[in-house]
Amino acid sequence: MTIVKQSLFPGGGSSPLCSLKTSLLTVAVLTFVSLFYLSLNSLRTSPPSPVVVTPIHVPQTFAKEDKTDNNDDDGTAPTTGEENYSDVYHSPESFRLNYAEMEKRFKVYIYPDGDPNTFYQTPRKVTGKYASEGYFFQNIRESRFRTLDPEEADLFFIPVSCHKMRGKGTSYENMTVIVQDYVDGLIAKYPYWNRTLGADHFFVTCHDVGVRAFEGSRLLIKNTIRVVCSPSYNVGFIPHKDVALPQVLQPFALPAGGNDVENRTTLGFWAGHRNSKIRVILARVWENDTELDISNNRINRATGHLVYQKRFYRTKFCICPGGSQVNSARITDSIHYGCIPVILSDYYDLPFNDILDWRKFAVVLRERDVYNLKQILKNIPQSEFVTLHNNLVKVQKHFQWNTPPVKFDAFHMIMYELWLRHHVIKY
């Protein structure tokens, strides 16, 4: 007998459970498709316009401290007032903040060793072409930055004056030995060199013989901070480690120039010795030109009193070619007398180059541009010349030495450069 199972549900349909599962699956698929469509549609629409907030312009000025804030028995002359330097700095606000921090915290220890009557502690003099070396040695002792406690020092100053050695007739070979023996003595006596292998030590020399004397020690060249007047980065000068010291011929023979553009009728001026290739070319190409005042030699004093210096007052652009070294005191002479310096010296890391925008107050050329020099200068519009001149007046104080030192002068700018380099690892 055949048994036929009768469906439990009329009409042979599926169970309610299956119908429920099917319905839920359908709803899920429809929901997924709807969400996908909405997402796709939102991607195709344009994003909302950003809210533009107009920045508030705050003039960047360096407020100078008053007498009570800037004369903490440290020998630093007080200054007052406020000046706007936004036109000549790469980053005015960064300089303002870092400078203020430097004045509060920076400390330098000067090694006391060495006989002051020989080659240590003081240079031969603080005048002439190498006055910058002498002024620094003097200013560091007058300033708030000196500390007698080596444990709180950020940097250590090695006070060897090669200028003084040169004055005593010491040979290059003996200079190298003297410097090496002095440094070896410091390393043996004190623990500070070995903590950083000399990376937090520095020396200052403006004469090229000083550079040569210190080059006798590989550790001094490789590790220490060199503050030198001849910062040529094609012969060992390392810009991020070493510091360019401005060569300043002080005292200046005449007062500072500036704000006198109407008196400057000569296009360009240079007079000097032909002791470099670029100077030879400059004299040969332009010596007889009627618009450029180019002299083959320094102007003879017999022609009149301070004739050479007075030429700066009458000139728009003063040509500054490198001499036996890349540097020249003529650059700071030009700045002091209000004449736009024209830099004609390759591989020259200009003083304070990482702080000051030299192209805002000087004309920086390559040596090969000497052949087109006159046309380059004539192509500078009068309005641009006036702007360069006004900016030049703003930076004059940075290339001036004082005793006691004055805020923002050459000494403080060098200290600021050292402050930027004082972060080293101590072992």
TrEMBL record:
It comes from the Eukaryota. Coiled coil: none annotated. It is a single-pass type II membrane protein. Its main location: Golgi. It is found in: Golgi apparatus membrane. Residues 62-87 are annotated as: Disordered. Pfam families: Exostosin_GT47. Keywords: Glycoprotein, Glycosyltransferase, Golgi apparatus, Signal-anchor, Transferase, Transmembrane. Residues 102-379 form the Exostosin GT47 domain. Belongs to the glycosyltransferase 47 family. This is Probable glycosyltransferase At5g03795. It comes from Camelina sativa (False flax).
